[in-house]
Design goal:
This protein is of the alpha+beta class. The protein contains 11 helices and 4 strands. It has one domain: NADH Oxidase, CATH 3.40.109.10. A 4-stranded antiparallel beta sheet has the order 1-2-4-3, sandwiched between helices.
Amino acid sequence: MRAIQQFREADWGTGEAWDERWDAFQQVNRERRAVRDFDESPIADEDVEAILSEALLAPSSGNSQPYVIHWLREPAMKAAAAAACQNQRAARSASTLLAFVCASRFALETTAMFRSYVESTAELSEKSREYHLKELKTGRLFLRIAPSAIWSPLHFLLTALFPSLTLAPLGPAAVRNWAVRSALFAAQTTLLGASARGLDTCPMEGFHARKLARILGLKRGDVIALVVALGRRRPDARIEPRWRRPFEAAVQVR
C-alpha cells in the first residue's frame, strides 16, 4: 500500500491535489447541461479537436472502438443535418454537430490497425504482445461471426426465454447495439470535455435516421447512435433547476 501511495504522490500529487481534482471534476460535471439555445458564434477548430481527442480516449469493448465521429462544420452539411434532426432548436443554433456512427466494420478496422501496432512496437513486452495477439484473434473471429443473420432466430428465442440475454451480441441488430454502447462512452466524454473547455452541448436522440444516413453517406449496416450539438449557450438559454432520482432510489447497496 505504501508503494501505491508513493506512486500516486509522484504522479498525481498529495491528497490535497486529489481534492482539487475532485472539485474541478464536480464543477465540470455540474456545469454540463443539455443546452437547446446556442448563440451561433463560431468555435475554433482547435477547441473541437481538443475535445474529440479526449473523447477518443474513452473505453470501448475490447478496445474495439467500433465507431467514427462525423464532425459537421460546413454550413450546408450542418444545415441539412439539422433538418434531419427535425429542426430542433439545438441543432439549428449550434455551431457544430457531431454524429456518432457505429458499425462492426469500424471494429474490424481497429483490430487491423492495433495488430500492426502490436507487431511493430517496441513498447510492449513479449508476454504482452502474445496476450494482445491472442485477444485480437478472438476479437476478429467474433466480429466476423457474431453479425451474421443466422444468429437472429437463436437470439430471438434466447431473449424470449431469458430477457436478461437481450443485449447479448448475436445477430446484426444485437451487434449494432453492442457497438452503440461503446460509442456512448465517447459521447459522454465529449459532453464533459466540452464543459471543461467552456462550451455547451445537447445530446439528441430525435432525428430521421434514414435522412441523416443519406446526408452522411453511410453504408448499409451503419447506425447513428447519437447526435451532439456543440456551441455556446445564449445568455437567455433556458436552464432549469436540475432534478435527479434520489441516491437511495438509484443506487442499490448489496
